[in-house]
Design a protein that fits this description.
- The complex is a heterodimer of chains A (235) and B (212).
- Chain A is an alpha/beta fold.
- Chain A has two domains: 88 residues, Methionine synthase domain (Methyltransferase, Methionine Synthase (B12-binding Domains), Chain A, domain 1), CATH 1.10.1240; 129 residues, Cobalamin-binding domain (Rossmann fold).
- Chain A has a five-stranded parallel sheet with strand order 2-1-3-4-5, with helices on both faces.
- In chain A, α2 runs antiparallel to α3.
- The longest helix of chain A has 24 residues.
- The termini of chain A are far apart.
- The mean pLDDT of chain A is 93.
- In chain B, strands 2-1-3-4 form a four-stranded parallel sheet, with helices on both faces. In chain B, strands 5-6-7 form a three-stranded parallel sheet.
- In chain B, α4 links the parallel β3 and β4.
- Chain B has two domains: 101 residues, Rossmann fold, CATH 3.40.50; 88 residues, no CATH class.
- The model of chain B has no long low-confidence stretch (mean pLDDT 96).
- Chain B has eleven helices and seven strands.
- Chain B is globular, with a radius of gyration of 17 Å.
- Classes of the chains: A alpha/beta (235), B alpha/beta (212).
- At the A-B interface, α5 of A face loops of B.
- Chain A: Pfam families: B12-binding, B12-binding_2.
- Chain A: InterPro entries: Cbl-bd_cap (IPR003759), Cobalamin-bd (IPR006158), Cobalamin-bd_sf (IPR036724), Met_Synthase/Corrinoid (IPR050554), Meth_synthase_dom (IPR036594).
- Chain A: This is Methanogenic corrinoid protein MtbC1.
- Chain A: Keywords: Cobalt, Metal-binding.
């Protein structure tokens, strides 16, 4: 009976205060078509894209992130939810710029040289975009020249590096050391992440912070960018 | 001497028999290979204890597990050898072994020492998009890859996990047509090209042969 009732839910007939929580449930369950439909309904009802992003998508994904952190959800379910969020983001992204959504800052991100794993990096990119950051994604197998070239051309606030392998994570130090040699290390916030990393490794290679997951990456990025802006204002 | 079944090796491991001067503490994924080497070479001075092979998917458990096993067994043997490579511990296992005064196998993981560390390292740049299986992992593909990644529930995620991979390389320890067919099927399920490379026991045999 309960299943029949669930099947009977018609999103367009729900008032806003029921539709938004329902979209959160659909996102949690990885139902991308339903999430996309919900986004379109809210747009038709005159919601600003940024409001849909934060109240319907990011808030839903935050629940997913918390349950992942607490061992309630696992990677496959998080990926399903992320795919659902991506479906909603794809609709909103072109509209966000047009409607003057607030900008938090800019990040260049890539998986390090020798490493082709990008699931974590992609989650971070998506959540950073959801939080209002411009993200320039360099992809996988990124060498030091690609990182430094992107820093020069994009002038981001943040450099993000990701690695899944213990054999590739030391390459992050190559990038940071090269930045230091060229006298630009202090110009950027450097965040690192990936399954085999930890805080001690992040400190040892000279990163500003190690980020355990995508949610932590967003909070850490916001905190560092706010601090940077405060310092600039004070200076 | 017979090895226990793969499921036991995956989940529980293998206790030592209490015979032999030197204890080899190994990943359960190596039990069949070490047992075969012992039999073929008459290495009766070696005893074998295995830790759960599924720790391959949880490398943070390996160093503490090895530490506990060394503490439990060291008084009963003249020496202990750890038949693990780094196996995703990020140097943690090497640090533990150094602290405990026990030797281990060089290299990043079992793929490297089966293939031969020098050969594997030389090929590394050309094979960053290769996904490896051994005999054990080919047999236990569902338990180690398919189910833990949720592909039994969401097969469409294979593209998300393996979209950047190009080929599955089956590092074969034995000539087994049935296993070769299984490995080939694993590649097809992941949507990857397939290559078989016969390695035999590689550096595992060399390392164990040095234990006098």
């Amino acid at each position: 009976m309960a299943d029949e009732e669930e099947d009977d839910i018609i999103l367009s007939e729900l008032p806003d205060d029921e539709l938004v929580p329902q979209m959160g449930d659909d996102l949690y369950d990885g139902l991308k078509d339903e999430v996309a439909e919900g986004v379109n309904i809210l747009l038709e009802r005159g919601w600003a894209p940024y409001r849909i992003l934060t109240e319907a998508l990011v808030s839903g994904m935050t629940v997913v992130g918390n349950d992942f952190r607490d061992g309630i959800l696992f990677v496959p379910e998080v990926l399903q939810a992320a795919n659902a969020m991506k479906a909603g983001m794809a609709i909103l992204k072109p509209l966000l710029a047009e409607t003057g959504a607030p900008k938090m800052g800019k990040m260049v991100i890539g998986t390090v040289k020798g490493d082709i794993h990008d699931i974590g990096k992609n989650l971070v990119s998506m959540m950073m975009e959801g939080a209002g950051f411009d993200v320039v994604d360099l992809g996988i197998n990124t060498d030091v020249d690609q990182y430094l070239g992107a820093l020069e051309t994009e002038q981001p606030d943040i450099l993000g590096m990701s690695a899944l392998l213990t054999t590739t994570m030391p390459y992050m130090k190559v990038v940071i050391d090269t930045m230091a040699e060229r006298g630009i290390r202090g110009d950027y916030i450097v965040l690192v992440g990936g399954a085999p990393l930890n805080e001690e490794f992040g400190r040892a290679i000279g990163a500003d912070a190690y980020c355990r997951d995508a949610a932590v990456a967003v909070e850490t990025a916001k905190a560092f960018v706010a601090r940077k802006h405060n310092q600039m204002a004070a200076g | 001497m017979t090895s226990p079944d793969d499921r036991t090796l995956t989940e529980t491991g293998l206790p030592p028999r209490g015979r032999g001067r030197i204890l080899v503490i190994a990943c359960g994924a190596l039990a069949h290979e070490i047992t075969a080497l012992k039999r073929a070479n008459g290495w009766d001075h070696l005893d074998l204890a295995c830790l759960p092979a599924i720790w391959h998917n949880h490398p943070e458990r390996i160093a503490p597990g090895v530490r506990a096993a060394v503490a439990r067994h060291r008084d009963a043997y003249d020496a202990i050898f750890v038949a693990y490579a780094d196996c995703g511990t990020g140097g943690g296992l090497a640090a533990t072994c150094a602290e405990l005064g026990v030797a281990m196998i060089a290299g990043p993981h079992c793929y490297a020492f089966f293939d031969g560390l020098d050969r594997f390292t030389a090929r590394a740049d050309d094979e960053i998009a290769a996904f490896y299986l051994t005999d054990f992992l080919a047999r236990q593909f569902d338990a180690f890859v398919w189910r833990p990644l949720g592909l039994d529930r969401y097969p469409e995620l294979a593209k998300t996990y393996f979209g950047n991979y190009e080929k599955l390389v089956y590092l074969a320890q034995t000539d087994d047509p049935a296993l070769e067919a299984k490995a080939r099927d694993c590649a097809a399920r992941l949507g990857l090209d397939y290559e078989r490379r016969f390695t035999g026991y590689g550096d595992l045999e060399t390392a164990l042969a040095r234990l006098g």
